[in-house]
Amino acid sequence: MLLPKITDNVKIPPIKIQGIKTKLTPFILKSISWDGNGVYFEPFVGSGVVGFNINPQRAVFSDTNPHLIQFYNDLQSKKINSTIVREFLEEEGSKLASSPADKNSYYYTVRDRFNKSPNSLDLLFLQRSNFNGMMRFNSSGYYNVPFGRKPHRFQKALITKITNQVKWLEEAMDGKDWRFECMTFEDAFKLVKEGDFVYLDPPYIGRHDGYYDAWSLELADQLAELTQTSGAGYAFSMWLENQYRSNLHMQKWNDGVLLTIEHFYYVGASEKNRNKITEALIVSKENHNKVT
Ligand SMILES: C[S@@+](CC[C@H](N)C(=O)[O-])C[C@H]1O[C@@H](n2cnc3c(N)ncnc32)[C@H](O)[C@@H]1O
């Protein structure tokens, strides 16, 4: 049995993005029951924190963000590895440290370089020194997240931490049948068969997050339909309600079991500025782990 997994030691992947499920991963992993005999699919893989912590033998990880997929493919093909990452961050981090914290920062030199010729090392550098770990592109596909304004960001301790995150992922992939594909969720579902398991974490409806592709209610409805008729096991993450409103789209998900957990989003550092939200996880009936 691959799932459930009981853990409070969630491993953090190297590329962070908004909506990353780090805090909810223990809840997700303990709520699902799956034998692991089929293929694990994650069509909105993002940082991969959920799937990489599940660590299945066979998986298709996909996303419409080509840069994320390129990063995972470069790691899998060993074009980059933790040693290369360490050397790169030491060198580029020291250039960042000797540049100003404003628009003349070396951060923007790397950002321009990435936009002219996208590559995985620059993506990692930007993602770990930008504003709030956001991953955002404009309508022409250009990465446009501003600098986090910390020129001394890449201290020894942070470089070691990132290098270890890369090493963990490198080792997790080794010897596994994992595919990383840049594709829409519709294309991913064409590969899904009975006995497989699909974890779904699409962009949240009603919240503009600046992901690679625009999300819409039509796509959300299509996802609900595809998932609930696929014959595969599934778990679907979405917000359910906050103090102001409920997510009406959840009515489209009436086939599985609804599990909920309360989560706090912090706006800035102050304890007072925290917003409570109820997060939902819908799990297909036969994959719901009732014993917790
Ligand atoms: C909420 S994030 C996933 C976060 C991920 N679970 C994590 O913990 O990091 C949603 C992801 O869906 C991707 N995406 C947006 N539209 C998509 C589509 N139509 N098909 C597949 N992926 C899409 C985005 O690029 C983004 O990486």
TrEMBL record:
It comes from Alitibacter langaaensis DSM 22999. Its EC number is 2.1.1.72. Pfam families: MethyltransfD12. Belongs to the N(4)/N(6)-methyltransferase family. The keyword Cell division does not apply. It is an enzyme of class 2 (transferase). This is Site-specific DNA-methyltransferase (adenine-specific). NCBIfam families: dam. One of its GO terms (biological process) is methylation. One of its GO terms (molecular function) is site-specific DNA-methyltransferase (adenine-specific) activity. PROSITE patterns: N6_MTASE. It catalyses: a 2'-deoxyadenosine in DNA + S-adenosyl-L-methionine = an N(6)-methyl-2'-deoxyadenosine in DNA + S-adenosyl-L-homocysteine + H(+). InterPro entries: Ade_MeTrfase_dom_2, DNA_methylase_N6_adenine_CS, M_m6A_EcoRV, MeTrfase_D12, SAM-dependent_MTases_sf. Keywords: Methyltransferase, S-adenosyl-L-methionine, Transferase. The keyword rRNA processing does not apply.
